Structures are given as structure tokens and as C-alpha cells.
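User: Can you write out an input/output pair for a complex, sequences first and structure second?

Assistant: Here is one pair. Inputs:
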Amino acid sequence: MVKLTDVAKLAGVSATTVSRVINNYGSLSQHTKDKVFAAMQELNYQPNSLARSLQGKETKLIGVIFPSVSNPFFGELVSLLESHLFAKGYKVILCNSAENKEKERAYLQMLIANQVDGIIAGAHNLGIAEYERVGLPIISFDRALSNTIPIVSSDNYTGGALATEALLKAGAKKIVILSGINQPNSPTTERLNGYADTLKAADLQPITAEIDFHTAANIKALKIHQLLVDQKPDGVFCTDDLSALLLINEAQKLGLAIPTDLQVVGYDGTKLIQDYHPELTTIMQPIDDIATLLIDLLLQRIKDHHVALQPRYQLPVKLINGQTTR
Amino acid sequence: MVKLTDVAKLAGVSATTVSRVINNYGSLSQHTKDKVFAAMQELNYQPNSLARSLQGKETKLIGVIFPSVSNPFFGELVSLLESHLFAKGYKVILCNSAENKEKERAYLQMLIANQVDGIIAGAHNLGIAEYERVGLPIISFDRALSNTIPIVSSDNYTGGALATEALLKAGAKKIVILSGINQPNSPTTERLNGYADTLKAADLQPITAEIDFHTAANIKALKIHQLLVDQKPDGVFCTDDLSALLLINEAQKLGLAIPTDLQVVGYDGTKLIQDYHPELTTIMQPIDDIATLLIDLLLQRIKDHHVALQPRYQLPVKLINGQTTR
């Protein structure tokens, strides 16, 4: 069976270029188009996708790429994406990309091969160049994937500021931020900026601790234990709720009373946390609004590949007061 | 044997139209599609899979139907299913069926219409008759869907017995089981049987409390609170870990010390619970083995629709001793 890559090889162009010709997307010279069409004819290449795109037929499938639905935040977000997409006649192809570049690449190639109508991605194993190359509808959650891919986030800066203000107001003086590895361009790094600016305005020194998001929980717990021993903070802003739960467990092992000796604020505020850990003070992301906006933007771009979208969309966050702050 | 033309006649459309619906080809109104699906169901029409595979027309898509990936147990199971299926060249179409018959039906129709190669289902909104009618590869997790659909489960009976024995050994005398609604034919009802038989062997009386699985957590918490007040148990076997967490929270509100006044055993033992609630004594389901076996059986049946499979496959469970039992 003739493949798109065979066409590309014969025409002497990339697979992406063939895909663009098929989908009539992007600016291509007539010369290139002619070469591709000639190769397609010579090989009798009849992709479903060609027939489909000539008829304007959609697959009604959306690729959804997140680190893993076993993480409660992504589990809830993907669950909402699936529900809202189903209501609009779309089905979800699920990709857990965690730490697997090849897998993320395979899903992007599906898009290039026109097997899904669009992608919603919150993963970031691959470089921006690979996302640039796709050139078809993608909307990102909380990740800088490419200059042409709009990003939907919660208002990470305000979230970081709100968390830090809550700790300051409750009397904490030595406030540590515990986060994943902060990439310079990542939207989540704004949580750090909101934290640092708020501390500086109060003449206090930021103290940052970074633990890679993918670290196993038991290793993360050991590192948190050491952090508490070394730094002796009286307040910690954890940029995700699960790390906050680990921190609380480790604090208890050290005999630290919460919130008397140590105050803690998390981030995410999933339904799981609100239902099963209502004691945790946290910053709640509007997960349902995030899902709705991601889908709205993606469907706009599927309908019209050239629709003008903003580079960034930020949705408001809320402080949920629990018993881990005074 | 029912032919495509029979379907066409009953639906009052042409054979070409039926073919187009089956292959999801061309533009068809929802009304037409619905008529054709209804006729296919009524006649139990099974599109010719042999012809399809001769044409190399496998979709390499597997439908995965569970209540919701926002539930940590299903989130972990679906995450593992996706990873293992990806390694075998399949992609996952995700369906969160929670309390939505129409949605579950729509996904089954996809299967009938030959848009996925098979389905792994752990949902049960629909009657057995609707699953009987599908007649194509489905493997079930923990649900009796039809006599012809194999069921993979953890060893629910032994799990119930182990949990109850742990509570007895730790000295509990008034042991309540807190579960979802027990259906007579459901594999999970075996947890109740394991509990009841173990208590009876110790000359104790079973006390059952049932709360519908889909009940919102805050309402469930109220019911659990009342249960603790009314029954004053000294041991509770919760047939899922999240209910155990709610129970522990409510017990603490009532000033009950755990495990001194009240001992608790959960069920599921997800990675999330082991990482973030290592204090909970629970029965661990072998989630990775469950995922592996579900896929192995499904791929066997996709390869050969008539392969002989057992009606039930049960995988061993383990007691994880935490600090909620003595």
C-alpha cells in the first residue's frame, strides 16, 4: 500500500509538504504542488484523507495529549474535554505522553496524516520546531509549543501572588516555593514570578525549590523532607496540590503542626482535592472553563485554519481557604 | 445470515447508503444514520469482518468505556490500557460513560459501524440485551455485560474475605461493609459475599450499607456520618478507597480515633492512594495485570472472533497493611 511518505520521496519533498498540498494549507508554490500531484498520480496514491478533504469531510476525532490521566488534574481535564467534545459530535483519541517523545511524535504524525481534525495538547517533550512543522489545528494548555499555537492557561501569575499573599497575611515570614523545573518560557513559571514579586514587595527573599514533575512520589517525599529540615520554612507554596499533600505528610513525620508551625498553600483545586482534602488551602484553576475554551478555540481553528486567535488566553483563579493556613 | 440488502430494505434506504454508514463515508444526515443503525441492531447485522480484514481495513482504534477517568482507579487503568495498546500499535478512543446511556449506546454503535476494532468496557448503564446485539469483540472489566463477553476482575471474593479477616484479627467486633448498590449478577458483589461469609464463620452478623457509586462526595459524606452515628461500628470495610477517605474524615469530625476507636480497610490500592495515603489499609487490585489481560483477550478476539475464551478471569489481590487497622 502506497504511503504518504512514498509520495514525499518521489516528489522530493517532506511528508509535511505533501500533507499541506492534500489539505490545501499554507503557502506553497505551484511548482511544488504540481510535483506532489504528479507523484500522487504516478503512485496511484488515494488517501482517505484526500477524498475526505476534497469532500470537506472531517474525521470528528480530536487528539488529546497530556502527560497522564492517572494524574487527577489531567484526569479531570480530559474527562471534561471528552464530555464537552462528545456533546459537539467529536470523539477523543487519548494520548498519555509522559516522558515519551516517540509517542508524542507519533500522535503529531497522526495529525499530519489527517487522521484527526485537531489536537489539544498539554505535553511538552518535543521541541517547538516539531510543533511548528505540523501547521494544522492545535491548541495548547499551559505550554509554549510554538508561536502559532494559542495557549490557554489559568492566570498563573495571579495564582502565585494570591498564594503568597495568603501565607504573608497569615504571618509566615520564611516562605518557600516548591515547584517543578521552571522553564523560562513556560506559562507555569508565572506562578514563580507572582510568588517572587509578592515576596519582594514585602521585603522578603524568595527561596525556590524545584523537583522535576515526573519524579516518583516516594523520591519527591524524601527531597521534601530534606527541604523542611534544611530550610525550616514557616510557609510553603506548592505549585501543585499533590506535592502539598506529600509536604503535609513529611511535616507531620517531623512533628511540625499545621498550620501552627508550618502553613501550606497548594495549586490546582481539583474536585478530588476539594472532596477528599477540603482542609487544604489552595488556588483553584477553573478546569471546566479551561476545557470549554480549549474546545471553542480548537473548533474555530478547525472551521477556519486562518482564523485570528490571541497567542494567550488566561482564565481567573480563586483562593480556596482551608485549614492549612491560619 | 443477514445481508446488507436486508438492512437496506428494513431501513428504507439503498444498499449504498448502508455501506456508507458502515464505512462512515460520504455526507449523510443523522436521521439516515439513525435509521440504518436501528435496522442493523434489530437484525443483529454484523458487517463482514473477513472482507474488511482482507482489505486491510482495521482501524487500529480501540474504544475504552469507563465511568470517568476523573476517578483515580479508572484514570490509572485507562492510562495503563493506553500505554500497552500504543505499544501494540493501537490507539484509544476514550468514552466516559458516567450515568449516560445515550453516550454508551453511541460508542457501541461506533463498534457496530466498524469504526473501532474492539471495545474494553467497565461501564454498565445499558442492559445486557444491547451488548448481546453487538456481536463483535468486547472484553469487560468487572461487569456482567452479556453471556458472550468475557469478564476480567480482581478476585473480589477473596478481597472481601481478606479485608474482613484483617478487621477481625485486629479485634473489631461490629464490622460494617460500605459499598455501592450491589447488583445480583455483578462481580463486585462478590466483595460483599467474601465479607458476609467471613463474618458468619466468626459468628458475627453482617451489617451492609449501600451508597450509589455516582453519589456526590459531599452527600456521601453526610450519609457516612449518619452511618457512624447510627451503627457505631468498630470496623468498616469500604469497597473503594475514596469512600474510606471520606469515612476517615467523618470519623475524625466525630472525635473517633483511628485505629483505636474505629478500624478501616479500603479497596483498590491505586498508586495515588499508595503514594498519598500510605496510612490506609487496603486491598490492592493488580491494575497493571488487569490492563494487560484485558488487552490480551481483546486482541485474541479481534484476530479470531470465534476464539474460545473463559467467561471469567480473576486476578489475585493483596492486603496492604497501613495504620488504619491495628
